[in-house]
Amino acid sequence: MLSSEGKKVWMDGRMVDFADARVHVLGHTLHYGVGVFEGIRGYSTSHGPAIFRLKEHVDRLVASARIYHMPIPYSPAEIARAIIETQAANDILPSYIRPLVYRGEPGLGVKNSTGKVSLAVAVIPAKKYLGEGSEEGVKAKISPFRKPHSDAIPSFAKAAGNYINSYLAGVDAQKDGYEEAILLDQGGFVAEGTGENIFLVRNGTVYTPGLESDILLGITRDSVLQMGRDLGYPVVEKRLSVNELLTADEAFFSGTYAELAPIQEVGHYRIGHQVPGPITRDIMALFRRILTGSEPKYSDWLTPVPSISARTAPRASRR
């Protein structure tokens, strides 16, 4: 078995073997990118296996599907249950969980808004998205590819096709020897990474781009906003110039797969005097404690996963 594989995939109410999770080559989502998905993490905590901020991820999945006219034939509670069952059936920790809403039946033609909408949930082993040393700092570059304006492609939706933009930016950065790319919005302000939101620290205040920069509303981003305020730091959402980033005291990425990754350099500019910086370290330390279940205040961010690996998921009812 490849290290990227899980054991079982939940597909429209059935648990199937990982190798048998297939769709047709003429599926609409494959050809046009009209699908929505989530990235969710599972962790081993002091109270047993748990999924991080499951409700918020399910809510965003449903909202993304609504934007793309894809009525999911399962309720939010059924989706959450499918995710829990799939995590349990795979028995992988730490894990990366991928729910996908898609049209997998043959359906060529751009305006195919009536084809069958399916839901699949897969689980694979989680790795360090930005590399094994990412907690100590990563190097990034300003991408030549800009984020599209939300008037063209809605940034609120975590849609498959949106990531063509991230792919181009990310591969460009890799070829130049960087771990990640930083995309600017159409106005030239800092937007986000290819799969992460971005934060910077100046004079003791934590800043991050807001909705006007056409960002995805990250679940980990929201977590950082709450953690920063709870730690007593001023947190501000606003447009950020490239100059503000390059002269920041600290900077870091936040994302479900990337977790929290300090930014060491942007292009030829070193960020701050030490990486991670003191405020970044504080937020990272609190985040690690939350993920291990040792911060009762944030216990509602962790959904327990019953140990039911030997049992297959029951068929979900269709609405």
| CATH level-3 fold name of the largest domain | D-amino Acid Aminotransferase, Chain A, domain 2
Compute the number of helices: 7
Poorly predicted runs: 309-319
Number of domains: 2
Helix content: 10-25%
Average per-residue pLDDT, rounded, comes to 93
CATH superfamily of the largest domain: D-amino Acid Aminotransferase, subunit A, domain 2
Order of helices and strands: EEHEEEHHEEEHEEEEHEHEEEHE
CATH architecture assignment of the largest domain: Alpha-Beta Barrel
The top level CATH class name of the largest domain: Alpha Beta
Q: Beta-strand level of the residues, as a percent range?
A: 25-35%
Distance between the amino and carboxyl termini:
36 Å
Rg over C-alpha atoms, rounded to the nearest angstrom: 20 Å
Please state the structural category. Answer: alpha+beta
Question: How many β-strand stretches?
Answer: 17
Q: What would the principal axes of the Cα set say about the shape?
A: globular
Most strands sheet:
9 strands, mixed
